[in-house]
Amino acid sequence: xxxxxxxxxxxxxxxxxxxxxxxxxxxxxxxxxxxxxxxxxxxxxxxxxxxxxxxxxxxxxxxxxxxxxxxxxxxxxxxxxxxxxxxxxxxxxxxxxxxxxxxxxxxxxxxxxxxxxxxxxxxxxxxxxxxxxxxxxxxxxxxxxxxxxxxxxxxxxxxxxxxxxxxxxxxxxxxxxxxxxxxxxxxxxxxxxxxxxxxxxxxxxxxxxxxxxxxxxxxxxxxxxxxxxxxxxxxxxxxxxxxxxxxxxxxxxxxxxxxxxxxxxxxxxxxxxxxxxxxxxxxxxxxxx
Length: 289
Hints:
Layout: H1 2-20, E1 23-28, H2 34-52, E2 55-60, H3 64-72, E3 79-82, H4 84-94, E4 97-102, E5 108-112, E6 128-130, H5 137-145, E7 154-156, H6 162-170, E8 176-180, H7 181-184, E9 191-195, E10 203-206, H8 212-223, H9 232-238, E11 243-245, H10 248-251, E12 272-275, E13 282-285
Parallel strand pairs: 1-2, 1-3, 6-7, 6-8
Antiparallel strand pairs: 3-10, 4-10, 4-11, 5-8, 5-9, 12-13
């Protein structure tokens, strides 16, 4: 009888554990073609599954235009791993909470082949520069670098990944490429003619409907990711040594980088209380957008 009771208790525990396990989606930026992204992030998904007891499915759009549309439309996802401008947009518009970020800040490098590097960034006006499409952060930084509409390089959004841009420089398909600095460091034989300011590191954020215990489990797992030998490959691909805690304040204001992107709408300001000098009555005025 005692043995049977113990066995029944074990089955009950197993049933409870199975019932509490759930499937969650993780959305990432389309920095790779979808099939390649599945391979790149598979070690991370498997690690999160082992660490939390839940199942994680990758969601990646076909390109940045679709990714941006999905963000605006609040297309369902439980977690998102993105640069600061997207992270802040999700925080401000959709109630996401940043959990962790890569330890290193995001910076962008404009790399030019030897024959086009002598005159710096201005020397590339009229020449080809490859970047991932708008509104990737690299593209937006590149747009800030060349604000004059009559003094522009030919910006081509034809790279399938950030590394592809550098390979296109080597093959003379382009004169320069905009890439994250962690990728630029892998190519010492290509000259950086511009280094951007720093942005908060890419953040892993959680949607408001993700249970607190799941958020805590994912956070704990990500903070220990660098200790797991099987996850070394994904850390290398992501260009980081480890993840550290993320704060909302680090990302505040970065969604403004999207202000000139098609489909962006400024967040409505709250109504302000304005005194009526003739009557002393407080009236409310909504300034709108």
